[in-house]
Amino acid sequence: MNPGTTRGTTRRSVLAGAAALGAAAALPLTLPPGTAHAADTVDDAASLRTRWHTLLTGGPGLDLTDARIAAAVARTGKAATTAAKGLDPSRDDGLFPDLTSTTLSNHVTTSFKRLATVATAWAVPGTVQYGDPALRDLLLAGVDWMLTHRYGPGHTRFDNDWDWEIGSALALNDTAVLLYDVLGAERLDRINAAVRGYTPDPNLWRADRQIATGANRVWISTVVAVNAVLRGSGEDLARVRDALSDVEGSGANSVLAFNDASTAAEGTGEGFYSDGSFLQHYKHPYNGGYGKELLNSLSRLLNLLAGTAWTVTDPDLDNVRLWVDEGFDPLLARGDVMASVCGREIARPSKQGHASAQTVIEAVVRLIPSFPGATAERFTALVKQWIAEDTYRDFLAVTDLASLVAARDVIASTVPARGPLVAHKQHPRMDKAAHHRPSFALGISAYSSRIYNYESIQNENLHAWHLSDGMVLLYTDDLGHYSEDYWPTVDPARLPGTTVLAGRPADAAGQRTTSTADWAGGAALPGTTLGAYGMELRAFGSSLHGLKSWFCLDDVIACVGSGIAADAGTAETIVENRKLRDPAATLLVDGRAAPADTGWSTTLDEVRWLHLAGTGGYVFPEAVTLRALREDRTATWREINLKYGTDTPVTRPYLTLWQDHGTAPDGAGYFWLQAPAASAERTEQWSSAPPVKLVARSTAVHAVRRCADGLLAANFWAAGSVQELASDGPASVLVRPEGKTVTVSLSDPTHLRSAVVLDLARRDLTVVSADPGITVTRAGAGIRITADTAERHGATLNLTLKRS
């Protein structure tokens, strides 16, 4: 279905038949004769419990002689041993000695998660805990303690509603499924009453306040679905199925429908967009946080409901294909999810080391049976590539038992791996861009009047002030760069690519803030790794402002800045801030090795090129003065996360390079070429003959031209002209001559213009093809291109011309 198609009647008509099968049903889940379902059709609650039990344990048929399986079983047992430490139902203050708070709700959720971890090992054959009667009794006593002292009717919730309605409920449901045969009727009734007391309806989040959206909706649906199986309620399973589609509403809260039509006036804007963007908490980019959890939970629900009267039949389910292709694939860099879309999770020590990508892979593996045919083959090729290319973290050595079994079947298939991603992808609905080449990937993080700068709630992510001030994260063959304690130790006031005022704001200052500027985004040439991207920077809490562009031209990124000004303070643009894999990595400055001593700090004058071993090169066609610093940075995770951080100091080596624009600058700028993964020899060669030339850097337009083919890339901040191209107002444009054809790609990065008008001073061009909304007429010494950009939300429009 076209993402822009009006929904409601279509959704309801498609779902009507399925809803009739389950709306009034009570388990056993009897299916009507002749109903077509998956091969493993189920008709009773026990079978559905078995499905969920298999998702938790890998099922009863594990081959314990297989080394991979045996290792996963051992991991399960080891995790349980750790989780069970201190478990003591005789205590009065808490089930665990380190989880005694009655003001921090995550102590409740963590207690239940530990019980679920121990119960999993108890239920998995081959663990040292398997079937242990003493452990069974300890687990039952632990559940009783939590129901008596912390969770259920008569207990007033405190702190974070998520823990009561989602986190604790999910873990308690899992524990109940794992221990089902030994719970007893009375205890099971207490569990069900507790869960339903906090989470009775899949359609509500904080039931007295608002409708659930995005990941919260799927989490709540999962709570209700598993508890419905425990209670034997077909009616609630029908409500879960319908809640995913918002069958009783307007479609604005459907998890499966794209959120493209959403505006601030119509709804929260949370969920997936057709360009692959995902927003949660209203305006936060969150593919790598809530988005991955939505995908993960949805894949489990689809598994549970497949082949029943409650199978999800909404045609919008097909949108999940694009979630994966547009919303996850471009944001994964060899096993790492780009930090700019992970929200406050970057400040959690448990989420480093490619852990977020693991969740994505597990979800896609689980989705493959739901999308047979070409989609299943594409997902299989993706999974095989993702697993193979992450040599930092072996997916098969860390994933759960069920995912391990399924992933090994995927790997054994005859479908070849996709191969490395080579693409330039922009997400205009969340002000982010990703650039993938065979030897590196690069992510650009901006924000605007439409998108928040960063999230810091629950005392997490306290130093992310500049996460969207033009941060550029470079992913090379150093796959652990953004792992191993990067986020607590990096200088948060000098994130790479940003333009900032020197100094450190207060913890969490300015978070959840939109910019006063509308211009953020760019244009991308389809089928290539060519893109123009930019943002108008309006810093929070100061007068600092400026214009920033990144022209991503295959293996070279041209970085351009102009109009940098502030009433007070010292402005800096950060060329690089790299955690060094080798603390003594060689930095060449115009061919001479700089000192590699920790603590080295200097001013580098008249720099033409730099090369950092293991990272790449930097070319300055206009000689520039830079500041340089090598340092060991020591910090604790608690400095950036009071909720989950530890007080253990960690130390990492860094090299930082920046351009100092001076105090209270007025009209400062910069220009350099970044050449990730380039050799020192190639960098030196390009310093003598730059492959990209700057042709405009003003407050009206930034533009560069590639020497090899004459490609012109321009960001117009206002009406203006550059060489053969003129624009009537804000626009991002690429003009690429190739043989006898000329391709033009353009967008309105402000999302506000009804039309963009370009004049291209070439007489000999005729139209070959054009996206809807583009018209071409003769004008003066060339042609006039008029593009209807109304309601395009920054998306690129394309035009192909031919020389006569």
Q: Could you characterize what this model shows?
A:
The chain is α+β, with helices and mostly antiparallel strands and 804 residues long. Helix 4 runs antiparallel to helix 5, helix 6 (161-178) runs parallel beside helix 9 (214-231) and helix 11 runs parallel beside helix 13 (355-367). The longest helix has 19 residues, at 287-305. The two termini are 39 Å apart.
Average pLDDT figure = 92
- What percent of residues adopt helix (DSSP H or I)? 25-40%
Question: Could you tell me the strand content as a percent range?
Answer: 25-35%
Radius of gyration: 28 Å
Class from secondary-structure proportions:
alpha+beta
Low-confidence stretches: 1-41
The main pleated sheet reads as:
12 strands, antiparallel
Q: Per the principal axes of the C-alpha atoms, what is the gross shape? A: globular
Tally of helical segments:
17
List how many beta strands DSSP finds. 35
What is the rounded distance between the termini?
39 Å
